[in-house]
């Protein structure tokens, strides 16, 4: 249940942050008329995500056992691939997510209402589909009734509440550290889902080695005990895994965590120049919503004003240069 809560919290918080950025940008720039199509796109994305999850749940029940195992195993591998890409992508681009969304929203505003709906739909729908797929595969591997779904729902509700508090300015946390550590925990959960997915493929006779057990500690950690259930819910732990399951689990988890926590995985802030500390800092480039641009050296002068003070400073500078060159007053 905790593993699914973590999935719902992590994925839901990403979607909540996207929604907060989109809504806050429109409100701050005075474009409230664009809120309705944005909310429409968000609603369509949420409906599609729930419909996708329902199709996975009820559609798989009409299949044979082998077909169910083949479907579950294949989708588990796909879900782990998507989640792995997502955690690396979020860690690399978390600092620039706001600027990227602002750029997409500005382009959509110029194109019209349909573009706004599509932009909001795609921004939230990607997170929703990933969440539905990964929650379903994790619930299938946990085989613990409705508790995995309850855990995922609680995680999503927590994410929505945090998103609202972020928008209101009531909560401030270090999102970079949050996504780093939850991403690492999600990689551990994904390793268990991947191992169980390969077990499903073995039960579907698509992969060999179903009878080759790596170890069996069912007597020490019974699957129906409270601690066995806890390990199963968090790590998809199985007391009698096959050799292939253990191999896949180790080959995925160890290198993925090593690369994920390696120094330098986070992209540098684009607002910070890459030159040496002594190099001059370039002026800020104007963004589409900027109404004024600060000019280095200007003294409370509007852009393009060309006041008398500037002209006097130019003449004074030229006169001083002439004095230095000739050394004698004319």
Automatic annotation (TrEMBL):
Compositional bias segments (type: Basic and acidic residues): 310-323
Keywords: Membrane, Transmembrane, Transmembrane helix
Keyword match Ligase: no
Superkingdom of origin: Bacteria
Amino acid composition bias (Low complexity), ranges on this chain: 271-282
Transmembrane segments: 6-26, 38-58, 70-88, 108-125, 145-166, 178-198, 242-262
UniProt membrane topology term: Multi-pass membrane protein
Localization annotation: Membrane
Secreted found in the keyword field: no
Listed Pfam families: FTR1
Chief location of this protein within or outside the cell: membrane
Annotated stretches, region: Disordered: 271-330
NCBIfam families: EfeU
Stated family: Belongs to the oxidase-dependent Fe transporter (OFeT) (TC 9.A.10.1) family.
The name this protein goes by in its record: Iron uptake transporter permease EfeU
Organism: Streptomyces mooreae
Organism placement in taxonomy: Bacteria, Bacillati, Actinomycetota, Actinomycetes, Kitasatosporales
């Amino acid at each position: 249940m905790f593993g699914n809560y973590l999935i719902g919290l992590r994925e839901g918080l990403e979607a909540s942050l996207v929604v907060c950025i989109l809504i806050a940008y429109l409100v701050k720039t005075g474009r409230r008329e664009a809120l309705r199509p944005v909310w429409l796109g968000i609603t369509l994305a949420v409906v599609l995500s729930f419909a996708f999850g329902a199709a996975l749940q009820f559609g798989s029940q009409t299949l044979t056992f082998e077909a169910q195992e083949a479907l579950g195993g294949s989708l588990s591998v796909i879900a782990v691939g998507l989640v792995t890409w997502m955690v690396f992508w979020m860690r690399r681009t978390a600092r620039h997510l706001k600027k990227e969304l602002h750029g997409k929203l500005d382009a959509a505003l110029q194109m019209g209402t349909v573009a706004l709906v599509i932009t909001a739909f795609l921004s939230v729908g990607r997170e929703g589909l990933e969440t539905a797929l990964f929650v379903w595969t994790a619930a299938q591997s946990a085989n613990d009734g409705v508790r995995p779904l309850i855990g995922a729902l609680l995680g999503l509700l927590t994410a929505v509440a945090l998103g609202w508090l972020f928008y209101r300015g009531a909560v401030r946390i270090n999102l970079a550290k949050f996504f780093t550590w939850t991403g690492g925990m999600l990689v551990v959960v994904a390793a268990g889902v991947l191992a169980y997915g390969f077990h499903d493929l073995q039960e579907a006779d698509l992969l060999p080695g179903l009878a080759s057990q790596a170890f069996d500690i069912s007597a020490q950690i019974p699957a129906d005990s409270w601690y066995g259930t806890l390990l199963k819910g968090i790590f998809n732990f199985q007391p009698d895994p096959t050799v292939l399951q253990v191999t896949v689990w180790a080959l995925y988890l160890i290198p993925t965590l090593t690369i994920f926590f390696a120094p330098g995985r986070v992209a540098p802030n684009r607002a910070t120049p890459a030159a040496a500390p002594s190099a001059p800092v370039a002026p800020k480039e104007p963004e589409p919503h900027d109404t004024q641009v600060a000019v280095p050296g200007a003294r409370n002068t509007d852009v393009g004003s060309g006041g008398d003070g500037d002209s006097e400073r130019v003449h004074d500078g030229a006169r001083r240069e002439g004095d230095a060159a000739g050394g004698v007053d004319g």
